[in-house]
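Protocol step 4 of 6: structure prediction from sequence.
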Amino acid sequence: MFNLLKRLVSKKNSTKEKGELLGSDIQRNLDRIKEIFINANDIVIRAFRVGSYRKIKASIVFIDGLVDTGALNEHIIKPLVSDIRLTQPNLWLTNKQIFRLAKEQVLSVGNLQEVESLEDVVSRILSGNIVLFLDGIPTAFTSSLQGWEARGIEEPETEAVVRGPREGFTETLRTNTAQLRRKIKSPNLKFEIIKVGRETQTDVCVTYIKGIANDKVVEEVRRRIKSIDTDSILESGYIEQFIEDGPFSIFPTVGNSEKPDVVGGKLLEGRVGIITDGTPFVLTVPFLFIEAFQVSEDYYSRPYYSTLVRWFRFIAFFFSIFSPSIYVALTTFHQEMIPTPLLVTMAASKEGTPFPALVEAIVMGVIFEILREAGVRLPRPVGQAVSIVGAMVIGEAAVSAGLIGAPMVIVIAITAISSFVVPVISDAGAVMRLFLVIMSGFLGQFGLMLGVTGILTHMVSLRSFGAPYLSPVAPTTISDLKDLFIRAPWWAMTTRPRVIGWKDPIRQGFRLMPEPPDDDEND
């Protein structure tokens, strides 16, 4: 008695979880499909009959434009209509037996699956799959025969390299997972699909390397993504803003990249990737501040030049953030710190200008941001001309009219050029630059130091999925300094970053430094 009640309750709960189940009447199933997709003229319902003797009713439902119709006709419809195993007059085969025969011997597609609920059927159709119904069978076949137009694999314009792979991610999820699988041929590379968005039902893929990635970080990524309750996810930027640790911080705590080799390298260090269908930008967590200065080409070139270029990036970042604020502080409050010949030259060039240095810096900074935005949004040939010519004309005209001093134009030019060297945090750099200019304009050097202290305090308090944002500087990890201010040779980088890959810290063997052969061996 109790076992019977237990089975009934279990069956009821199972039905509730699955939703409305399909029926044996094919017309009823199709009517429900038509009710759900009413006024959707891209839904195709192709009706036909299986076999030439029994002529069982069958229908295929798919979305026009999302399915490869050539493969559909060749591998699904043609075998069902003309295969001799289904056309012979065999009165002893039931509909269910024909269903099994078609699945096991007739249909020549590799990813054929069965679905039982109407909710699963609708989800598969919206994902670009085909769904096959047979009369008298309360289940349906589904197969992924996607065939929509997609952009090919190209070199990302935002991460161009001189040496390294030229391929980039595309807007197709399976193309992106395949590129990662080509880079990391390991069964430990996992892909987990989560649907996000009540209306868009966007496929979001969580990828990681089992045994290297921290299980707690993987679970936290799953939890944050599953907790997203919104109607649409159109780009990975939506996901980023829902899962980041510091939603009110100007600094990014979630990384992104368009290159499979970059994402593959981060996965091998123990990070977790988030691939969103419909965008080539793949998110990675945890994200550390130092990653903004690390470029994939650093690890393909010789370590000495890579270290030198990385220092150039640090210097350019310093110039882009502090040049305007230092100039404003010196010319407004601390003229005694400027060498006398330079001070005389600056005073002569600034004579007659109506605005103080603070106003000049803010106005020129705003003009620079406007020109940069115009250059990005316009077509590439026109945008480059607008950015270059516009900056030259406006700068020259402002100096000639006596509105802006020539030194300020030079400072803003240096700032503008330097800001393009580290594009990952260019948006945060613009905010910091404006904040420090205002602090320097009102309080001078004291205001500048106060602003820097506030920024550093905020950065030290940031976390990215449990990892300190300024690691390995704060807290200091000696073993991770080999990839901070210098880029050590590959044979010396034996361990993964401690705060990320501590679960499997050993990256490679020890004592791998190449050595020349002994003279005795040459003899």
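Step 5 (inspection) to follow. The two ends are 90 Å apart (CA to CA).
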